[in-house]
Design a protein that fits this description.
The complex is a heterodimer of chains A (315) and B (509). With 315 residues, chain A is α+β, with helices and mostly antiparallel strands. Chain A has helices spanning 2-12, 17-28, 34-38, 40-49, 68-76, 114-125, 232-246, 276-280, 284-293, 302-312; strands at residues 57-61, 80-84, 94-96, 98-100, 103-105, 111-113, 138-142, 160-166, 169-177, 193-197, 204-209, 212-214, 250-258, 262-269. Chain B has 509 residues and is α+β, with helices and mostly antiparallel strands. The chains are: A alpha+beta (315), B alpha+beta (509).
Chain lengths: 315, 509
């Protein structure tokens, strides 16, 4: 039984955690490049240098008590997002939809006081949300207004798009939809839904929720498949370019689609999860091996790589 | 890709194997150091009555030499003084002192491990002169009778002499008159002297040994036998039966070279009793004795040379890598979650003082209390380091409460929590809280269960004494453990949990 399942998974081309770590992450992601993706501020600056759009950065707080610029920023912007530069798994991200005088409103309608807000910022600075417990920086950036295409299948929060990129070639994609359970966050292990995306045309297919396969959103009851993801080709190109940007051979690229600005690079992940395989009902290993077997001609530019992927990874 | 790792693993395995083989073949280590080893417990008890002057009792006792190890020697001397003397090849226990009319019970006991005889390389002993009570004429008679065997090999000479004492002289027949003279000599001097004279006449060095038959027994007197040097080793001969003992010789020598096993001056010894019983010895002791006697490099650098109080720590530490290996196995092959990477191993070590059940209980209790307080503290928005400090303080207060409760209930285990687990517990509480918050109570529970399971397995492994002993005797086994760890590091197959996780895809394809 165990052996049978084992050989079946292998035939199906499923990538396991051990192989991902040993053969892909350790081989292709040099440790020295990890800070580029672990620190969102560095990722943002790097993306800017490579003309990859990201949510606008309003303000950075580096030290306790460094709140002078904050008030100035508040007068300019009605909504914004506070996040730790080195936060892991979406922790420590605070969305503010609007504010008036000393009250700040989260998308859920909950009101926070000025003290609550500064406490949160200090928590971030002292490393509460960074996994290593190191001192951190606080980023304040633009509130992303998601494209309405996913409105019917989003409880609240911002859906994002994850694309796995191997040696610069987009391999597999997934839309991550927040749920009530995930508290508006797009993290699968917190209860968000992952919906597989057909690489070729950007339409959604099956969905995974807590490693079970579902067809409808548990909160909104809308069908999750056959949604056309807008800007799909553009996002594949952004994803492909992150390889030239970071030099990391195995990456999870997280993007959001802003109503006005289109696709924006949110963050990069040097150890992307494997759940995407369930959402797509396809194995990563098979595709990674295809890329390793491909001729050198497909690799020179992001365009050639995306073209090859579109041709090769039909469902 | 995989080759360097495999090569390293093979090299480590070979290194480990080479060292083990070296120890077994050249240093004569046992292949299974933890195999229960049978030993003999010897006890000598005697009751001495004294006169007016100082009484001295000298009793031959066994000592450690090639072929036997003596350990756990214990002396009962009452009001007498006790001393150990070396007399030639013998070790003599000397009890001395002025005894009243009452008398005194004296005793000696030890544990003896008889090793299989190895070819001894002791140099050939010199030929002693004839026994003093045998005159020149009798010596000449013996020479006449057996002189013709001098050209034979030592083993054959011995066999001929043994037969001759029983009356079988072989061919060609000896002179009738000589034979008659010889039987009267035999009657006059007894068997032992007869043997000694004949053996001397055929130039075989021999000595009289007193000792005991190696069998469960209680004896009131010692056994006397003759040992004969045949050029390579000592053969033992039963003088009354005239038979050579088969190897391994079932005898325990106490005194050699004709020295009596017991001597008393100015006193009287009644009820001397030698008791031999079989038993199983503390194996740590055996290895310790063996290694302390050796001056080989690996023995001089053995863990057994450490002072005993430090040895105890290493007995545990030496098995910790196996615990770490268990964690590799559980995490990378089974996919079971644990708190931190080596936290369960540290937990297992911490259970050393409290025992497994109480250890797990204390851990569960403190983590639960910690979790409740941590939940509540979360509202206070304390910064990371101060927050951890608060939890650390809480852990220590919990320990104190446990200890006080343990004291009231008379449970030592509750008081035995050491210093080690405080940091582990603090971090476990924090990790437990974070996992429960981020991934749900279910995940938190499974991680806790996984950690407890690994801690239990590890605890059982590191306290499994035969394994401790084996690793202590062969520390190079750690290289083999490292080799397996390296190989596991290159395991890129699926985890058991992934088989379950991705099994759903099977129905869809």
């Amino acid at each position: 039984m165990i052996l049978k399942t084992n050989s079946w998974l292998h035939q199906f081309g499923i990538l396991g955690m051990n192989r991902r770590n040993a053969e892909y992450i350790m081989r292709l992601n040099p440790r020295s490049s990890f800070p580029l993706v672990d620190d969102k501020l560095m990722t943002k600056r790097l993306a800017k240098a490579h003309q990859i759009p990201t949510p606008s950065l309003y303000h950075v707080i580096e030290y306790h008590g460094d709140l002078g610029g904050l008030e100035e920023m508040l007068s300019d912007h009605q909504d914004f997002v506070i996040k730790p530069a080195r936060g892991a798994g979406g922790s420590g991200i605070l969305l503010i939809k609007s504010h008036e005088r000393s009250s700040f409103f989260k998308p859920s309608g909950e009101a926070l006081s000025w003290t609550d807000l500064t406490y949160h910022i200090f928590d971030i600075l002292s490393g509460v949300y960074s996994l290593e417990g190191l001192e951190d920086r606080t980023l304040i950036e633009a509130f992303v207004h998601p494209d309405p295409i996913f409105a019917a299948v989003t409880y609240y929060g911002v859906p994002d798009i994850r694309i796995i990129v191997y040696r610069g070639v987009p391999v597999m994609g997934m839309v991550r939809l927040p749920t009530q359970e995930s508290d508006g966050k797009a993290n699968l292990h917190q209860g968000a839904i992952g919906v597989g995306v057909n690489i070729k045309d950007g339409t959604t297919s099956t969905a995974v929720h807590h490693s079970g396969i579902i067809t409808h959103h548990p909160d909104t009851d809308h069908l999750l498949s056959d949604i056309q993801v807008p800007y799909w080709k553009e996002m594949l190109h952004i994803a492909a370019r992150t390889f030239d940007m970071t030099g990391l051979g195995y990456l999870g690229v997280d993007m959001v689609i802003d109503r006005e600005r289109g696709p924006l690079l949110l963050e990069l992940n040097a150890r992307p999860g494997l759940q995407i395989q369930i959402a797509n009902q396809a194995g990563l290993l098979r595709r990674l091996e295809l890329i390793d077997k491909a001729s050198a001609e497909i690799f020179p530019t992001p365009e050639t790589r995306v073209e090859w992927a579109l041709k090769t990874f039909a469902p | 890709m995989k080759r360097p790792a495999v090569l390293l693993a093979v090299a480590l395995l070979l290194l480990s194997l080479t060292l083990i083989c070296y120890r077994i073949i050249w240093l004569k280590y046992p292949i299974f150091p933890a195999a229960p080893e049978k030993v003999w417990h010897l006890s000598i008890d005697a009751y001495v009555k004294g006169g007016e002057k100082e009484t001295t009792v000298m009793i031959g006792v066994p000592y450690t030499h090639k072929g036997q190890t003596v350990a756990d020697e214990r002396i009962r001397s009452g009001t007498l003084s006790f001393n150990l003397l070396r007399e030639g090849l013998n070790q003599i226990g000397v009890w001395a002192g002025i005894l009243g009319l009452e008398g005194e019970t004296i005793g000696y006991s030890s544990t003896i491990r008889v090793q299989p005889q190895r070819p001894s390389k002791t140099k050939s002993p010199t030929l002693e002169p004839y026994p003093p009570n045998v005159d020149k004429e009798e010596q000449a008679l013996a020479k006449r009778l057996v002189g013709r065997w001098l050209s034979l090999r030592p083993e054959d000479r011995l066999r001929r002499v043994a037969a001759a004492v029983k009356g079988i002289w072989g061919t060609p027949p000896s002179d009738e008159q000589d034979l008659r003279a010889w039987s009267s000599f035999q009657e006059k001097h007894g068997r032992v002297t007869t043997f000694l004279v004949l053996l001397r006449a055929v130039h075989l060095p021999a000595r009289v040994v007193q000792g005991l038959q190696l069998a469960e027994s209680i004896a009131n007197s010692t056994l006397t036998w003759i040992e004969i040097w045949t050029g390579q080793e000592w053969e033992s001969l039963h003088p009354e039966k005239g038979e050579i003992y088969q190897k391994p010789v079932p005898l325990l020598p106490l005194t050699t070279n004709g020295l009596p096993a017991v001597r008393v001056t100015d006193g009287e010894l009644s009820e001397v009793r030698w008791t031999l019983t079989r038993g199983i010895i503390n194996q740590w002791r055996i290895h310790f004795e063996r290694i302390m006697r050796s001056d080989r490099l690996l023995d001089r650098w053995s863990l057994f040379r450490l002072p005993e109080e430090f040895q105890r720590t290493f007995r545990i530490l030496i098995l910790v890598p196996i615990g770490a290996f268990m964690i590799c196995l559980l995490r990378n092959m089974v996919g079971f979650p644990t708190f931190g990477i080596f936290m369960p191993v540290l937990m297992a070590i911490a259970f050393r003082n409290t025992g497994l059940l109480y250890g797990l209980g204390i851990f569960a209790g403190v983590v639960l209390i910690g979790y409740i307080v941590r939940r509540w503290i979360n509202k206070l928005r304390l910064l990371l380091v101060p927050r951890l400090s608060v939890i650390l303080t809480l852990v220590i207060i919990s320990f104190m409460v446990f200890a006080l409760i343990g004291n009231k209930l008379g449970l030592r285990e509750l008081m035995a929590v050491g210093l080690l687990p405080i940091v582990i517990l603090t971090m476990t509480i924090e990790r437990f809280f974070v996992i429960t918050e981020e991934a749900g109570a279910r995940e938190g529970f499974w991680t806790a269960a996984g950690s407890a399971a690994v801690a239990t397995i590890t605890h059982e492994i590191i306290h499994f004494e035969p394994l401790q002993l084996t690793f202590f005797v062969y520390p190079e086994l750690l290289f083999a453990v490292a080799a397996v760890q390296v190989l596991l590091g290159r395991y890129t197959g699926y985890r058991l949990s992934e088989l379950i996780r991705f099994r759903k895809l099977k129905g869809t394809s």
